[in-house]
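Hi P.,

Sorry for the delay on this. The queue was packed all week, but I finally got your sequence through. Input first:
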Amino acid sequence: MLQPIWGLLTIFILCPLLGGLPVIGWLTKRLTRQDLEKMGTGNVSVSAAFYHGGVGMGLLAVLSEALKGIMAVLLARYFFPQQPALELVALFALVMGRYWVGKGAGTTNVGWGMIVHSWQASLFILLLGVVSFTIFRDRQSGRFAFLFLLPLVLGLLYPQDGSRILAAIALALLLAWIYYKIPDDLDLPQQKAAQESQTMFRFFRGDHAILTLQDPLDPRKVGKKAATLAQLKRWGYTVPEGWVIPAGDDPQPLILSLDPSPTNPLIVRSSALGEDTEIASAAGQYLSIGNITNSQELEEAILQCQSSYNRPHAVQYRRDSRSETLRDRLTEEGSLAVIVQKQISGVFSGVAFSRDPVRRYDPAVVIEALPGDAEAVVSGRRTPERYRLHLPETPSSSPETLLEAAIEGTGNIPPALLREVAARVRELEDRFFGIPQDMEWSYDGQQLWILQSRPITNLQPIWTRKIAAEVIPGAIRPLTWSINRPLTCGVWGDIFQVVLGERAQDIDFSETATLHYSRAYFNASLLGQIFRRMGLPAESLEFLTRGAKFSRPPLTATLRNLPGLWALWGREQQLEKDFEVDLKKRFLPTLNQLQYPDHALSDEELLARVDLILSTLKRATYYSILAPLSVALRRALFRVKVRQLDNSQAPEIASARALAQLALKTRNLLPMSQLHFDSCPSLFAYLAEMPDGENVLAQFQQWLERYGYLSEVITDIACPRWREEPRPMRELFTQCLLNDQRRAQVEQIQPIKNPGMRARLVQQRVNLQNQVAQIYAKLLAHLRWTIVALEQRWLNQSQLREGGDIFFLELEEIRTLIEEENAPLHEQLGTLIEQRRSHWQQDQALSAVPYIVYGKPQKLDPLPLISPLTPQQILQGIAASPGQIEGSVKILRSLPQNLSLAEKTILVVPYTDAGWSPLLAQVSGLISEVGGILSHGAIVAREYGIPAVMDIPHATEQLQDGQWVRLDGETGQVEILGNPED
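Then the structure:
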């Protein structure tokens, strides 16, 4: 009776332990003094034993792993003689242990175990596998042919045994997954293998399989240049026919297969590991040899090209590389592949840059070209003709678009060809995730050929403030940034590591964001790389936060990251429960402890208070990032429209609604004849004198105590909260009291009745997001008030000169000033603050700060010029709140303290935050430079029932005060109907 139990224990416990025994590692270390875990790929495998230890060591490794596979099958057969499927389950368990503990794939285990399981099936699989590999000489195909044949042959031999077939399929899928996960020892340089193993390695590497540019190529094996050309060819671009010799491969098979001649010349080019990447072009470091007309020249050219890898200037280039990781990869021996291509006889040739590499903010395409072959341009021996073409930001190769492109520069190159080249290079930029491209091209008189495409290295990385301007808008002071950056980057890093695991080790998440012109920018290049590594499209963040277009993710990368993505989905599912736990154990206790700071507290006590807030704020930041992403993700998955969601509990909405209700009560107290006041101060002065006015003022103060943590920019602790500067709230109260339309606009906010099941699933996350926003904003408010209390102490002690000085220090500098009495910073404090204040003021005064920054901008870089729009012109943004309205433009670059707006005013702003809601209650339409359908401004606009369009870059520069426009919140279009003087 106990035999089945012992059998299952043997299969699921003993077999994984047996597979995990690192017998190969022990034998190799004992006999050769080599530690396989620290050599080559780090695999402790049969192929690693052959590679590092020689044939004798390899045969011992085969024997040890073969015995494991045989033993696993025999053990399963002993306990379950009538259930052969469990023999394959035992092999499955053995392979799992082999991978997780023993650092090997388990191919040998399965091969020999299968012989014992079914020698007939093994014979068929072996014969078919050997024949296919011998013919095609491609190890990848050979491996996956074996995995395909394993369940197929067993299914043909045992068609009635469904459990055996399912077990075989599971075993084949496990091996395929392991092959995908671990590096291949056969990719190591052949010449470094043990002498007696080199012939075997040469055979199993599949050296006789000739790689072509028609094949999908791995840049880690053949270099980025060859892989990019292969990708372009598969996309359908005209790339000259070509072949690739990976580093360490024998070139003879390719040489024998080609027949160069004077009428069919070839060119040999390098494709080194790290060449033509985002951070290093290696341009001109290696040889390219053209006009090859016979086989002997081809052999010599290949040898010269390979040898150029060790030229002194190439070696020095790799040593001087900006990236340590890249430098380590580039200095590996044998990491230069060779491309052999048919040479194009060009009538005109040149290079094209999709963005100007010198004038960073000029959107023109730059083309340098000459009559003849491309070598004349790239060699630098002749001065090329230079052209500039201004294409629309959404280029098309249609004749209409090409004819519209203006050309600067004159020369011999036909205008039609220049326009085609410009359209093609901008098209490639879009193909390569928006990374500016340097394209080498040639025109043979009939068609345009692409010879190379690589990133423009000095325009890397690409920084964007389209999303950052919503997270933390405006010109940012040093203290705010020193707090926000580590919080935001750290939490994003934690989220990414959930999915990527060990593959996140080489990512510096502190580089996720930076400041340019005192504005926050996200690293679009790094985020794109991270998202692609996660198996998601590069534009995932903009899709989730702003409703941008979402492309299909690469399937292989998504499958690779399924465990991590599943873990992230698990966190999303637990988000509400986790928040409830943190709310009770962290957030509420901390907020209850944080009353308005007593100015009698010492510097050390205030600093301790700052640390308490920051420790709590880090967890709140986690929810402030995941909750909105969860809303966007669920809304996209369940296809719920924003109008189906209730945002009435959002702090900015709830505060305005509560104030409108207070205004209604106050209106009922006042005689109708006395509802005429010149200004907000006169109203409050009247309330202070009337009998019931004291109660109204007390209720207003209670309202302010409840919502006083809000501000113009919640994430910027340098901005005063409503509690400190209540004038905008008094103005809104006055508007609601005196203006029926304004009050009705706010009062109309009502919860949505009877939402559907899908809408309720999204609404759960909306409610959570609103709770999180309240906690997050309150913590930031208390952080500001603590900093202000510290600043007041230092002002009283004459350590600071004026209010606001402390925000020009970084947090660690404040800590140093408190903890180190003799720190040099005490003496330099005034000068340092003055320099930073001056720099911030200069940046704050800048107009037309770019939303996209390429590379590292210099102070001398001229900012783009933004021309005002004229009537009949149309701007396209994101439709955020439905409705159509015509009105007069009012541009506001910051929130004013006291402003009354006329009816039919369309407000144009750089961004919106919760603090803008009082002003939005006074307007008829909203246009914002940044934001999407789930941003603060969009939510408030929908609740107030006013049309809104978001994401129109430089709208505050392109539009003018008084301009008459038509705003369509359904299509996202803004049409200019007339200028102010019209």
